[in-house]
Amino acid sequence: MNVWRIAMKELMTSRDPAMLIFMLATPVLLILILGSVLSGNFNGKEAVGTVRVLYSASGDEAAKEHWESWIGRSIDETGGLEGTERGDREIIVKGIAFDEAKMGEQAAIDEVKNGGYIGYATIGDEGIRYYGNDRIGAENAIVQGLLSAYADHRKLSLVLPEAAGAAEGAASSGEHFETRMLQAPPKPNAIDYYSVAVTTMIIMYISMTAGLLIENERVRHTANRLLVAPVTKAEIFAGKITGSLLLHLFFVILIVLLSKYMYGADWGDNPVMVLLVLASQIVFAISLGLGSSYMLGSKASGAVIMTIIQLAALFGGSYFQNVDNGDFFSKLTRLSPLDWTNDGLLSVIYGGVESPIGGMSAEYAAILLNMGFSVLFLAAAIGIMRRKEGL
Amino acid sequence: MNVLQLEGLTKSFGDFTAVDGLSLSIREGEIFGLLGPNGAGKSTAIHMIAGLIPASKGEIRLLDRNIARNGRFAKSNIGFVPQEIAIYEDMTAYENVHFFAGLYGLRGAELKSRTEEALAFAGLDDKHKSFPRNFSGGMKRRLNIACAIAHRPKLIMMDEPTVGIDPQSRSYILNSVRKLNEMGCTIIYTSHYMEEVEELCTRIAIMDHGKMIAEGTKAQLKSIITDRKTLMIELKSAERLNEEKLRGIAGVRAVALDVEGSAVRVESDAEVNNLNRVLQCIMESGMEIRSVDERQPSLETVFLTLTGRSLRDD
Questions:
Q1: Residue-wise pLDDT tens for chain A (391 aa)?
Q2: Sign of dihedral through CA atoms B125, B127, B132, B135?
Q3: Taking CB atoms and an 8 Å cutoff, what residues of chain A touch B102?
C-alpha cells in the first residue's frame, strides 16, 4: 500500500503544466521535423538488393528442365533491374534469385507472409501459380512479368518449338498464369519511422530525471521524513520507480496517440505489445538513471547518461534508419538499446525484422534485453543503497 | 513511566565519535530540552532515536521496547520535525499532510479527519488547497510540524523548529509545543535559542563533544553554578570608573562594562560579602549610582560555564 501511496505522490509532484506541455511538445515537434526533413530517405530510391523467390517445379522432366534453363537465362539477363511503384518511390532491384522450396507448400507460403521471400511460384502441368507478397508491389511486378514471359515461352515451345526463341517478346495471354496476393506487413514511411524512433529516444531521456529520483528527496529534505515513517527503503524505492513508470507511460501513450492521430503514424494493430515494449524501455531508462546515480553519484552520472543517450541515439537509428550491411558499424548499432527497442517495435508493427536473439522474435528480444539490463542496474542501485545510511 | 530510555548510546563515524555513551530517560509528559553547541551530537542522537541512522553501540528503548527489534512500532509512535523544512512544494498543504499521515497506516475517513485536525492545529485550516511554495517561512515551519503530528505520536522530536522565522510564527510554534504537551505528547526539543528552552522545557540535558555533561530541571542546572554571583550596577556615567581598583576588592573575579557603557557587571565569589566595598569604590570615584541588581546565574551562564562556549558560537 505504501508503494502505491509513494507512487501516487510521484504523480502529484509532477503536475506543472509548463513541464507537461514541454514533455509533449518536444517529441511531437521532433517527429514532425525529422519526418518531414528526412522523408527523402524513405520516399526516394530504395535499393532492395536481390529479389528472392521460392519455387517448386513438378510435372514431367522436360518441363522442369525447361523451367530451370529458363530461369537461369532470365537471371543472367536481369542484372540491374529497376521497377517503379508506391507513388513516387523508385525501387532498384539488383537481381532475382529463384530458390527451390524444399519445405513444403504451406511452409513456403508462410515464408512469403513473414517477408523472407517476395513470392512463391509453383510450376507444373496445370500451369504456374504464384503467391506474391502484396506489400512489396514493385518487386512482385518484376517477378510476375518474368513468370508471364515464361508461361508464354513454354506454351509457344510446346506448340511450335522452333518459334519459341523468336516469340519471347510476345504479350502474355495469362491463360496459364495465376497470381494470389498474400497479406504481409507494410514498411514504414518517414513519419511512421520517426514516430517510433523519436518516442524511444525521448524515453531514453527519462534516465536523466530518474537519476534524480532519490536525489530530489534528499535535496527537499523529505528523504529523512520518509525514512522516519514506518516505510522500508525497498518500499520507497519501489514506489518511486512505479510512480515514475506510470507517469512516463502516460506521456508515452499520449505521444503515440498524438503521432497516430495528428500525423497518421502507423503503430500497427497490436497496441498491447507496442505498449509492453515501450514500458520495458521506460523501466530500462529509469533503472539506468538510478543505477548510474548510485554507482557514480548524481553529478557525474548526469554527464555519463547524457553521453550514453547521445551515442545510443546515434547508433540506434534515432536520426537515420540503420541498414544492416553486416559490417562493423552495423554490429556496433546492435549494442544500442534504442536499436533493439526500435527493432522490437518495427517487428510488432511491420514484421520481418531480424531479432538480436536467435529463436525469439524481435519484440520479445527487446523486452527481454530491456528487463534484463534493468535488473542489473537496479540490483547495483539496491546493493549500494542498502549499505548507505539514509536513502 | 519512561517514554524513552537511552543506555550507553554511541555513534562513531570512523575515528570520530559523534555521540559517546549517552544515557538518559525521558518520562511521559515531559518537554525535554536538548542543548549543545554545534557539533555537540544532538542531531546525531535524535537521528538514532528516529531510526535514521543505526547506533554503533548502546540501546534505545521506546515505551519499554527496544527499537532495534521493534522498528515499525517505534516509527509509528515517533513524530519527527526535522531542522530543515521537509515538505513537497508542488503538493498542496492538505496533500502533504495527507501523504505523510497515510504512510503511518491511516486510511479513509480517519486519515481525512486527522489531516484536517493537524492543519487546524498548525493554523493552516484555510490553506488546504494552497501550495507551500507561496507560503511564508513561518507557515512552512508550521506545515512542517503538521506533517509530523497527524498520526498522533507518543513522542515528538523537534530539531530546531523555530530557525529563521518571524517572532509571530515563533510564538505560534512555542504555543503549539505547549498545546501538544497538554494533549499528552512527550516532546524532545532542541534549539539554539536558550530563552525558548528555558521557557518551554521541564527538563534539560546539555551535550558537548558527544557527551551529556549536565542534566536536570532549570533549577537543578542553575544550582550547579553556586559559587558565583553577578552584580549589575547601573551608573549615570561610567567615564571615571577605575576597573583596576574594583578588581582589587576581595572576592571580585571579573569586571566588565556593558555595551552602552553605562552599567558595570561585577562577577564575584558568592560566599564573599563585598557589596558595600564595591559600591563605596564606585562612589569614591565620584560616579552616580542609579540602580543595583544582584542576579542569579542564567541558563546561559550555566551553559557557558560548562561548555566554555556560547550556545550560538558558530
A1: 889 999 999 999 888 888 888 888 999 999 999 888 887 666 545 556 677 888 888 877 777 787 877 777 655 554 444 444 444 445 555 667 888 888 888 888 888 888 788 889 888 877 788 888 776 666 777 788 878 878 877 777 777 666 555 544 444 444 444 545 454 446 788 899 999 999 999 999 999 988 888 889 999 999 999 999 999 999 999 999 999 999 999 999 999 999 999 999 999 989 999 999 999 999 999 999 999 999 998 778 889 999 999 999 888 888 888 776 667 777 778 889 999 999 999 999 988 777 778 778 899 999 999 999 999 999 999 999 888 877 7
A2: negative
A3: 5
Whether residue B94 contacts residue B125, with contact meaning beta carbons closer than 8 Å, is answered with: no
Give the whole-angstrom CA distance, residue B114 versus residue B165.
26
Query: Between A14, A222, A229, which is nearest B75 by CB?
Result: A229
B147 touching A, CB under 8 A? Answer: yes
At B74, is the secondary structure helix, strand, or coil?
helix
Distance CA B186, CA B179 (A): 11
Name the interface residues of A facing B (CB cutoff 8 Å): 2, 5, 9, 12-16, 220-222, 224-231, 389-390
Picking from A1, A11, A225 by the largest number of B CB atoms within 10 A of its own CB, the best residue to mutate is: A225
Fold classification of B2-223 is: Rossmann fold (3.40.50)
Residues of B in contact with A226 (CB under 8 A): 103
**ipTM of this model?**
0.80
* Full DSSP string of A179-190: EEEE-------H
Contact yes or no for B52 and A227 at CB 8 A: yes
| Helix ranges restricted to H, B52-193 | 71-76, 93-102, 108-121, 137-149, 167-182
Residue intervals in chain B for CATH 3.30.70.100: 226-296
Q: What is the location of CATH 3.40.50.300 in chain B?
A: 2-223
Please tell me the class of the B226-296 domain.
alpha beta
